[in-house]
Automatic annotation (TrEMBL):
This is Uncharacterized protein. It comes from Thermoflexus hugenholtzii JAD2. It comes from the Bacteria.
Amino acid sequence: MGAVIEVQELRKIYSVGLISVPIGMAARREAKVLRRFQATPLPPAVYLTTQLAITWW
């Protein structure tokens, strides 16, 4: 029973993480921050991966 509760709690945490990434990206887009990242040689996949890692750890 304890393991089932832990899995449910982890699902809640991951759900919040998955929801907060698009919201954060939209906020950065509105603040024109993403346009600044276009001027750097950083690939978009690296930026997205970093945002996912920061959100979950």
